[in-house]
């Protein structure tokens, strides 16, 4: 019986070991298959990731992006700068691509890239020390212009009409989108008495366009980007002076129209604040001209009586909004004016401005210099 039992136990053990071996082989096969699948997925994902990183960031975006490559920048430093400016997707892939192609000799300088550029175009630009793509249009918008005047310049320089530009800047749905996108734009610009919601917010500067037919939205957003950047530098100072952004921009537009030099702007801004603090009206002629909707060589007494929320002979405090765009100098002067005891100033028509403390002094200057 014992031998028979031993044989039975041996057979059972043999069967158990066989089943155990089959289980182990199955587990090993599953593990190996899983590893193969993981490696395959990883390889495919890695391939797709690298392939994507080698492509342009946005093939349809021709907007120029200004990028500075400092002197002495390393390849990794350049790659980091390009990634931070959203010109390339991945700095590590860019560095490997440069090594693979054995590229070197990149030059420091100021570049204009676009997000539609390929890695080869970017590399070629960096090697030659020049932008790879010249702008199709370069348009200069001076300071002190209204939106209508800006529209006229773009209609002259670009393949758009004044009507297209004005329709877009006055479109309520578009304005609401911009308010969401730009923190500087507040609900103040939704005042129905404003002639144009974006009046004053389209910054005076030179703009490059890289498309044959740049969309109106790109034109507007380029200008708002510049305004946002400039205004952002002065937010703390606005808070210190207890000014809202809209108030600061409105004051800057008036100062822009009343003065040319920085010294004049600071003095005149100080005079305006002196008037506001004592309850005087600003009584500045550029607001009258804006209220009238035109240009005149001389503002007459009857002109100052026009009933308009922009006419500072008619309303107390600031007008309801800007009367033109402005320079950074005008904004800075409006936030950091020169303190003085002056309440009046007079232009003599020759570029000179005479400041006075009392109305009597002001009238004496007027009698002497205004014919």
TrEMBL record:
Q: State the superkingdom.
A: Bacteria
> Which residues carry the site feature described as Important for catalytic activity?
258
Catalyses which reaction(s): a peptidoglycan chain = a peptidoglycan chain with N-acetyl-1,6-anhydromuramyl-[peptide] at the reducing end + a peptidoglycan chain with N-acetylglucosamine at the non-reducing end
Keyword terms, alphabetized: Cell membrane, Cell wall biogenesis/degradation, Lyase, Membrane, Transmembrane, Transmembrane helix
Q: Where in the cell is it found?
A: Cell membrane
Enzyme Commission code:
4.2.2.29
For whether the record's keyword set contains Isomerase, the answer is no
Q: What is its main location?
A: membrane
Keyword Cell membrane listed: yes
Topology relative to the membrane, per the entry? Single-pass membrane protein
TM region positions: 27-50
* InterPro entries linked to this entry: MLTG-like
Query: What is its biological role?
Result: Functions as a peptidoglycan terminase that cleaves nascent peptidoglycan strands endolytically to terminate their elongation.
Similarity comment text for this entry? Belongs to the transglycosylase MltG family.
- Recorded protein name is Endolytic murein transglycosylase
Q: From which organism does this entry originate? A: Ornithinibacillus xuwenensis
């Amino acid at each position: 019986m014992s031998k028979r039992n031993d044989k039975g136990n041996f057979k059972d053990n043999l069967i158990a070991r066989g089943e155990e071996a089959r289980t182990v082989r199955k587990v090993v096969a599953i593990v190996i298959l899983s590893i193969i699948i993981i490696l395959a997925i990883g390889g495919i994902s890695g391939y797709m990731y690298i392939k994507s990183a080698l492509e342009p960031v946005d093939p349809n975006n021709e907007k120029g992006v200004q990028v500075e490559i400092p002197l002495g920048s390393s390849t990794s430093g350049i790659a980091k700068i390009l990634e931070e400016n959203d010109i390339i997707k991945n700095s590590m892939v860019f560095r490997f691509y440069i090594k693979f192609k054995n590229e070197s000799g990149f030059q420091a300088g100021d570049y204009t890239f676009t997000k539609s550029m390929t890695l080869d175009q970017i590399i070629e630009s960096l090697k030659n020390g020049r932008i790879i793509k010249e702008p199709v249009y370069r348009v200069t918008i001076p300071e002190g212009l209204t939106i209508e005047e800006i529209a006229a310049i773009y209609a002259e320089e670009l393949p758009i009409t004044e009507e297209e530009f004005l329709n877009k800047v006055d479109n309520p749905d578009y304005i609401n989108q911009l308010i969401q996108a730009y923190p500087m734009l507040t609900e103040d610009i939704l005042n129905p008495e404003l002639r144009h919601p974006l009046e004053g917010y389209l910054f005076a500067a030179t703009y490059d366009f890289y498309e044959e037919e740049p969309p109106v939205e790109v034109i507007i957003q380029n200008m708002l980007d510049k305004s946002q950047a400039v205004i952002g530098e002065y937010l703390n100072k606005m808070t210190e002076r207890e000014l809202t952004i809209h108030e600061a921009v409105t004051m800057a537009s008036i100062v822009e129209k009343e003065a040319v030099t920085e010294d004049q702007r600071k003095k005149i801004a100080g005079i305006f604040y002196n008037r506001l603090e004592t309850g005087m009206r600003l009584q500045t002629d550029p607001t009258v001209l804006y209220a009238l909707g035109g240009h005149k060589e001389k503002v007459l007494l009857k002109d100052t009586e026009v009933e308009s929320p922009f006419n500072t002979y008619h309303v107390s405090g600031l007008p309801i909004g800007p009367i033109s765009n402005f320079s950074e100098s005008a904004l800075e002067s409006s936030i950091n004016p020169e303190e003085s005891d002056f309440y009046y100033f007079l232009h003599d028509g020759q570029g000179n401005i005479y400041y006075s403390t009392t109305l009597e002094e002001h009238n004496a200057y007027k009698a002497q210099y205004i014919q």
